[in-house]
Amino acid sequence: xNGIFPCPCLGRDPTELRRTTMQHLxxxxxxxxxxxxxxxxxxxxxxxGNVMPAxxxxxxxxxxxxxxxxxxxxxHDDSRQMAKPVVEALVGGGFxxxxxxxxxxxxELKPSVFAQITEEFASADASxxxxxxxxxxxxxxxxxxxxxxxxxxxxxxxxxxxxxxxGSPYEAVRVxxxxxxxxxxxxxxxxxxxxxxxxxxxxxx
Length: 205
Hints:
7 helices; three-stranded mixed beta sheet
């Protein structure tokens, strides 16, 4: 069973979050990857005849955010979560809707364009790229949900799911109106800026 549950982290102090039973590490991995500096990076594009392919506008929008994201890199490492201005810029720019179904307001971008945008963010701060990537990949689950449920979870620009790792020993218990889940997950990338948490687990019985 894959469960998606409203995130209890919204509006809570990061220091308090680190003491919760979820053991949130936030969106920043403890073994943070260091992205290569933009200087010296050679980008290549395939051309058809003498015409270079047009740059997708969202790729350019991602490039425009690189200075902001790069400047916040050390803060991300220290706080183990993305800086508020970075989160606001990413949400406002629609970067958490790239892989969402169109019927909930998503873009359903081609994987090739999504990869280019992830690369742009990674050139500034690998942890930011990871969180954006994970949030978008998690949103793909929306195509398997009833449309009203998908709309409830993903319908807003900040409708973000942070997913925990597989292999959980916990079980979902059937109760009136749904399931009850009690457990402890070591991390959920992007949990501080998520509105829902996802979990991999079995149904008891």
